[in-house]
Amino acid sequence: MITLNKKFAVIAVGIILLSVVSVIFYQIIANIAGTVSKSAEISTPTDAIRKSIDQGNEDAAAKSAEDVITRESDSAKTEDAYWKLASIYEKKQDLLKLKDVYQKIVEKFPSSSKILRAQEALENTNVKLLFSHIVTPDSFVYEVQKGDGLAKIAKKFNTTVDLISRANDLMPDVLRYGKKLKITKLKFSIVVDKSQNILTLKADGNVLKTYRVATGKDSSTPVGTFKIITKIVNPPWYPPKGKVIPSGDPKNVLGSRWLGISKPSYGIHGTIDPLSIGKSVTEGCIRMKNAEVEELYSIVPEGTEVVIVD
Predict the structure, then answer these.
(1) Is 16 helix (H, G, I), strand (E, B) or coil?
(2) pTM (2 d.p.)
């Protein structure tokens, strides 16, 4: 009987020991699994960002993206995190942060397959910011005084009525005494590269936006430094021979805007032939898509420098 009880005791102890070992083994496996899980999370860091975006939690998504950017070196994961961060700020219309993100992508990943997309996005954000009500270090707030008009304010600060109106959501010809207006401090200039058919709009010497243009056939676009001296909405066209062709006439080649330069008969204008953009086909003027010349027209005042190079 004693022998039998000893056997049962040994078996019981064995069972207890087996249970303890099993628990320890389970904890080890769980810890390993947790480590693997964390490792997998690190190896696919954008999963958390994507999940938060899918759930509509933009703040959490932005935090996850910022964590990846802080943790990773300049890798593909980092670039992907920047792009996801850009999509979040785009949705939130946070233009200042959006510009900063695109600027970092351009600076940190110059060899990226998405570099042209990033540059275009940065330039478009530059213009959106310029046309927005957001006051930046490149602008200031002006309080409307008695006797002020938009044209008077624009001339005083070397800007345009269009730019003031768009940045402040002003109705045409409506200006209230005491109203506070965002006014740009930027000095704009234009460079036209005939060899590339590219017009570059600069602000204080920095690239703000680039546009594809058409220039003169047989190198007929003049080279040199000029100034914008006239600006006309819906310009009539005065062909070398024949009668004046009014705006809106299908034969009027000038499109919706004219920015005449200090070289008689030459200027920057729109087009009725958008497929010609990027080619050397004009009689010497610089031709742009209508929507783009309208944008440029809104930004640059008379007196803006225009440099044309071969």
Answers:
(1) helix
(2) 0.81
Look-up: residue for tokens 């996005």?
121
- For 154-157, the CB contacts below 8 A with 24+ separation are 154/301, 157/183, 157/184, 157/185
pLDDT tens, position by position, 78-112: 899 899 999 999 999 999 999 999 999 999 999 99
Q: Which of 307, 302, 155 is nearest to 229 (CA)?
A: 302
Residue ranges, the chain, pLDDT below 50: 1-2, 4, 35-43
Burial of 105 (0-12, 13-18, 19+ CB in 10 A): buried
Q: 217 and 282 in contact (C-beta within 8 Å)?
A: yes
Helix (H), strand (E) counts: the chain: 9, 12
Please write the tens of the pLDDT for every residue from 286-307. Answer: 999 999 999 999 999 999 999 9
User: What pLDDT digit, counting tens, does each position of 218-248 carry?
Assistant: 999 999 999 999 999 999 999 888 899 999 8
Residues contacting residue 240 through CB under 8 Å, at least 6 positions apart: none
Residue 50, token pair as written in the block: 């994507």
Own/partner pairs, 47-50, CB within 8 angstroms, 24+ separation: 49/81, 49/84, 50/84
How is domain 46-131 classified at the architecture level of CATH?
A: Alpha Horseshoe (1.25)
**CATH number of 139-184, picked from 1.20.1440.130, 3.40.50.300, 3.10.350.10, 3.30.70.3450:** 3.10.350.10
- Looking only at the bridges linking them, the beta strands covering 139-143 and 180-184 are antiparallel
* Residue closest to 254 by CA, chosen among 241, 273, 240: 273
Q: Structurally, what CATH architecture does the domain formed by 188-309 represent?
A: Beta Barrel (2.40)
Give the catalytic positions in this structure. Answer: 269, 285
